[in-house]
Amino acid sequence: MAKTVPILVLSVLAMLNGGVAFVLGVTTLFGNRMLFTPGGYGPNRIAISQLFGPFADQTGWLVLVLGGLFVFGGYGLFCLQEWARLTVFWVFAILAALTLVAVGWGVFHGQLGVVVGGLLKTAVEVALCWYLTTPSVRSAFAG
């Protein structure tokens, strides 16, 4: 079965997203503090690293590994490899769970932007997980 437009778009976006995350992870390991710098507006600004909770010190490694998974997963999606469909599915599923943890953090700390953004992000991640398990997509990767 031929590649569909959504699979092509998902593969390219996964590779781009992974490339950016990989570069952010590498630069963080070399001393860039951007992921540790609070952003946003107001007195309750947070850094991205704070969303990793007790693993905040390993933010560079976590972002680097996730970026690498997305780059390889995106390439595998482009080549219609079954392992890539499963890898990207599980990465999205884990990210959805972690995003829900961030939403909980946002509720606890009164960060409406984190809550709304997190819920939107979770909806997209769950929708992509669903899409990757539809029969037509599964058959495209089976052949």
Question: Could you explain how this protein is built, in words?
Answer:
By secondary structure, this protein is an all-alpha fold. The chain has one domain. Helices cover 71% and strands 0% of the residues. The longest helix has 28 residues, at 82-109. It is globular, with a radius of gyration of 16 Å. The chain starts with a helix and ends with a helix.
Outline the low-pLDDT stretches: none
| Multimerization status | single chain
Provide the number of structural domains: 1
- Main beta sheet strand tally, sense and closure: none
Instruction: Specify the structural class.
Output: mainly alpha
Q: Average pLDDT, to the nearest integer?
A: 86
Ends: how far apart? 7 Å
How many whole angstroms does the radius of gyration measure?
16 Å
Q: Give the strand content.
A: under 5%
Q: What is the number of helices?
A: 5
| H and E order | HHHHH
Principal-axis shape equals globular
Count of DSSP strands:
0
